[in-house]
Structure formats: structure tokens, C-alpha cells
Amino acid sequence: MKTIDDFDFKDKKALIRVDFNVPLNEDHEVTDATRIEAAKPTIVKILEDGGSAVLMSHLGRPKAQEAEFSLKHIISKVSEIIGVQVKFVENCVGPEAEAAANSLEAGEILLLENLRYHKEETAGDRAFAEKLSKLGDIYVNDAFGTAHRAHASTTIVAGFFPDKKCFGYLLAKEIESLDKVLNNNEKPVLAILGGAKVSSKITVIENVLDKVDDLIIGGGMAYTFIKAQGGKVGSSICEDDKQELALDILKKADEKGVNIHLPVDVVAADSFSEFANTKVEDIYEIPDGWQGLDAGPKSLENFKDVVLGSKTILWNGPLGVFEMKPFANGTIQLGNFIDEATQNGAFSLVGGGDSVAAVKQFGFDDKVSYVSTGGGAMLEMLEGKTLPGIAAIED
Ligand code: AMP
Fold this sequence. Notes:
Layout: E1 13-17, H1 34-48, E2 52-56, H2 75-82, E3 87-89, H3 95-102, E4 109-112, H4 120-123, H5 126-133, E5 138-141, E6 165-167, H6 169-182, E7 189-193, H7 202-208, E8 214-217, H8 222-228, E9 232-233, H9 243-256, E10 259-261, E11 265-269, E12 278-282, E13 285-286, E14 291-295, H10 297-308, E15 312-316, H11 329-343, E16 347-350, H12 355-361, E17 370-371, H13 375-382, H14 388-394
Parallel strand pairs: 1-2, 1-5, 2-4, 3-4, 5-6, 7-8, 7-15, 8-10, 9-13, 15-16, 16-17
Antiparallel strand pairs: 11-12, 11-14
Helix pairs in contact: 1-2, 8-9, 10-11
Adenosine monophosphate is lined by residues 195-197, 200, 219-220, 237, 292-293, 317-318, 320-321, 323, 353-354.
């Protein structure tokens, strides 16, 4: 894997695809700078080598060139975090951008305007990518969040840098961490898949069945499995058309020697509300009018044993409706078990979809070994897909 450590950036301009798609408030101030912080080590290494950095990113989903999506709103934040006053150019391609890039001196940073102000970016347009390629000597991809998109700046542009392309530290770490979980792992390996629906995770489940020793299926997904096995799930979330698939997964797991762990009890509620009446029920015997919204105490005890017995842990998706306080306990407890296992030496990775939101909300992001920064990109990697942004560098 070629990373920025394989290049000396002295007197070179690095064209870096970063993910600065950060949330802004009504006054266009950055409310969460995690993604900018995450790109810092890559930028700093290049500047310390004696090079300069041209940063390109998208922000939001502009339809035209709406001012609210301008990356000029983040200039001061990026300058503050990197410790260098960032220059800005109001177009990401064309003569103005080229002049700005050409006049960069060692140690300087140029931020380009939003890539998605041009529809050619998401279209993966080759001519547009060629224009971008004129802005740097070495192409660095450090944007994991968009690595699953074959956009001009994430994938196509790499073709213009045949021997001068590499991963930034952030993207390299994402690839290494997932590899450590799925391939170069210490056994026993456990995957915990939660969240709302089987249908959105089916490819992930099928892919991890070849990689893990244990699989915990929790959250809303579990009810499809329980009903398929003849259980009564009341009005719990359930995909009736996926029951056969659920049975097929259980059979495949059995054939592959993977232990599947489903919840045995739940916190059931009489409505989908924070103010609902609740009671603990056997997951196979949820009364009509009640729905399971969190894992129950016996399930958590079982899950604890499995987590603490594992050496490698992958966690995607909450065990319950963690956004509502009465149903957050299962997800919090699971985080605690993973924390304990990690302290005992296990390698734990959390990521994919919205998992990171839950992990951050409860402060587990410092306690697991690695938190992935890319929701959709991580899910696609868990599905076993080769991401175009990664393939373009490895080619
Ligand atoms: P996902 O994006 O697939 O990881 O799903 C995350 C969502 O699943 C969260 O918003 C949770 O509220 C939801 N969820 C977890 N457990 C349940 C459940 N038992 N019933 C309904 N939704 C759930």
C-alpha cells in the first residue's frame, strides 16, 4: 500500500482529496471539526517535508452554486486547526485555480472551492478530472467517506498520476484497521450487527459469515429472525419478505460453524415513544400491541460473555432505539463490554452507517481501538466490495 510516507514532498505540490464535508450552523460556523482534525496529520507531514498542499473537497449537495455550500465558510477553522493561514480560490478548476496553485510556496495551503459546484465531479468526468490534475504534482487521497464513489476527484483524477499517487494517513489507517478485523485478525472474531433492517445489512451479513467465529444479530434486525423461527414479535419492526432469507442465513452460519447470537429477551413498549409503558418480555413471546425496542437483561448477559471472549470485534449498528433514553441501555451496555474487552487486549472497530453517532453520543469513541470515519464507505467494505477510490490508487 503506497502512502505519503513513500514520497518526499520537498518542493512538490500535493493535490489532496480531503473530506471536509463538515456540519455548519445557520451562521455558517463549523459545529463539528472532526473531519478537519482527521486530515491534519497528512497535511502536516507534507508541509514538514517542505511541500505545499492543495486541498479539494465537497460540502453538502449543492444543486447549483448556492453560497451556503461554499467552502470559504471553513477557511478560518482549517487555518486554526492546521496552524497555517489557508489561501482560498473561488473555483476548483480553471485559470484562476491554476494560477493560485502555481504561486504556492513551500509550507503553504490552498483550499479550492466546493468540487460539487461542478456537476462533472459526481459524474466522474474525465476532462474535469484532468483539469484538477493540473493543480498538483502528487495526488493524495485521504477521503475515506467518499472512497466508495467513482467521482472525478476521488477516483478518475488518480489516472493522471500513474506513479505519483498514494493514500493519506487517514485513508491508510481505515484500510489497515478493517483488514485487521476481517483478514489479519486474532481469533475468536466477533461481528455485532444491529440497526433497523435486515435488508440494508444482508450483504454485510453474508460477507462476514466467512470471516467470523461469532455473530451477534441485534436491534430491529433480530425480529425478522425470531419471527422466521416461529416466534411472536408483536408489532416489532419486522420484514416479512425477508424471513426465508433469515432462515437461509442461519443455515449458512451453521454450515460454516459460525455461532449466531440473537437476543432472548427485550424491553418491549406499547408505542414507539419515549413515554411508552415498558416491560421486559421473552423475545419469542412479545404480546400483540407491544414492540421490542431494546435488548433485555438476559440478552445482555449473553452478549457480555461473547464480547469478553473475543479477541477481534467489529461493531455496526445499535442494539436498540438508542435515540430514546428508555431504549438506549442495551447499546450503552454493549459499548461498556467492548470497552472492557479492548482494555483486555482485544482489537475493536466501530463503523458503518450511523454507528458512529451512537458511539460518540455515549463517549465510546475513545474506548474502542478504531472508529471509522466513513459510513457508507465502511459498509461497502464490510460487504466485501472493492472501493473505486482505493482501487484507483492501488492500480
Ligand atoms: P442502521 O442505520 O441500520 O444502523 O439503523 C440504526 C437505527 O436502528 C437507529 O436509528 C435505531 O433507532 C434503529 N433501531 C435499533 N433497534 C430498533 C428496534 N428494535 N426497533 C426499531 N428501530 C430500531
